[in-house]
Amino acid sequence: MTLSERLGTRTDITAGVIITFRTLSRHPHPSHHEEEVGQDYMEFLRGLGLSPVRDEAGNVMANCPATPGREGEPLLILQGHMDMVCAVAPGSGFDPLTHPVTILEQDGYLCTDRRSSLGADNNLGNAAALWVVSRGVSHGPLRFLFTVGEEMGLEGAKVVDPAWLAGAAFLLNTDGFHLGRAIVGSAGGRRECWTRALDTCPAPAGEAWRISLTGGTGGHSGDDIHLGRINPIKVLAAYLKEAPALAVADFTGGSAFNAIPAAAEAVVVGQKPDLGALKEALLPFHATDPNLKLDLSPADRPETVWTAHFRQRVLDLITALGHGVFAMDPQFPGVVGASANLGVIRCEGNYLAIRLFLRAAREEDERAMAEDNRRLAEQAGFSLSVTGYPGWPGDKNNPLAQALDRVYRVQTGRGLEVSAVHVGLEPSVFRAKAPELVMASTGPDILDAHSVDERAPLAGLPDYALLLAGLLEKGVS
């Protein structure tokens, strides 16, 4: 029986992957809330006749014996993460802790109703791998490994028992985002959380107003950072800095370290704001952020506002902090090498918190950006907490990537692009636990991840499933 006979037509393959994706997406699964989705993975693996196990963190692992005659081949791990960045449209009523995502097939894409992100990152790649194996494709010894907390700094991968990697020769990560690309390296990440106690005084005379900037495209802070999309936090801060007569009572924006902010709002007290300068500041972003909306509305009058000194310190800091591309990768032309994402500002109790995400392929770039931020934030009186993960150095001669390339050439007549990416991938953590493990990453096309516009082209799903199936059937060596 040929591979196409086992998997079916392209329509059959697409339908099978989507059904599996829906199964793995039927429960909410933002980071730190993967209990139910983990059970869904366990149930699916048991349905394959396997005996999955789960560690204390919630990571899931299952060994899958080779099909007859292939028992002596090297062990391959198929790996991905179960959590998602759940971006939410303001005013949508979507609760990421209780509402599963709404999955639609629309205009050639797998997408949502735009109340939330889709979670194709990374459930879609996982779904393709699980569905392919469920169809009886021939393969050598396999191990499935699915982690939690990837979107919070590869947290699940950090606590994976090295025994779960032991004995494997290869690991294929399914979190690659770009069909037609074999990824052999990724950027390190540094999550900076800056906090300072609020300094307030009684609100002055005047009306209260809410200035809202919504509808930004947002997106993945690594995959989309070079596209020049608006950061509403920085734009709104720049406007407020030039309008000192407006007392600031609150300033909120963004949703996560690793998501480009799509919205920001401020509550101010004073005469009705003239938004002319703010409207002008939005003009350069009409192409990148076509759904931007600026709104001014009356707000409930607050009892207190920021002191003038605190206001100046905060706005000076936000406008000075870098956002966007810092440097390109010298090893992989066209790939971003270092960047900063000013992701979140919000009041948390009696403190103001500002969250940034630095990504860098080279340690010296990360150090330079971190030093700039440290100097700026200390001048503004903020204290710092940091978490992070290392980079994964790229190797263009990676044998797993070469095996994928051979399969793809047979299937499509085109070679895979072997490259690095400006996102954090779990192989960067696994390499310290299993130094001899050869790793690569692939994935289906995913557009605008970490935003409510997240979507995956349906036309590419069969190609990705066939690439996985072809690799399993041919083997790596």
From TrEMBL:
<protein>
    <submittedName>
        <fullName>M20/M25/M40 family metallo-hydrolase</fullName>
    </submittedName>
</protein>
<dbReference type="Pfam" id="PF01546">
    <property type="entry name" value="Peptidase_M20"/>
</dbReference>
<dbReference type="InterPro" id="IPR001160">
    <property type="entry name" value="Peptidase_M20C"/>
</dbReference>
<dbReference type="GO" id="GO:0006508">
    <property type="term" value="P:proteolysis"/>
</dbReference>
<dbReference type="InterPro" id="IPR002933">
    <property type="entry name" value="Peptidase_M20"/>
</dbReference>
<dbReference type="GO" id="GO:0005829">
    <property type="term" value="C:cytosol"/>
</dbReference>
<dbReference type="GO" id="GO:0070573">
    <property type="term" value="F:metallodipeptidase activity"/>
</dbReference>
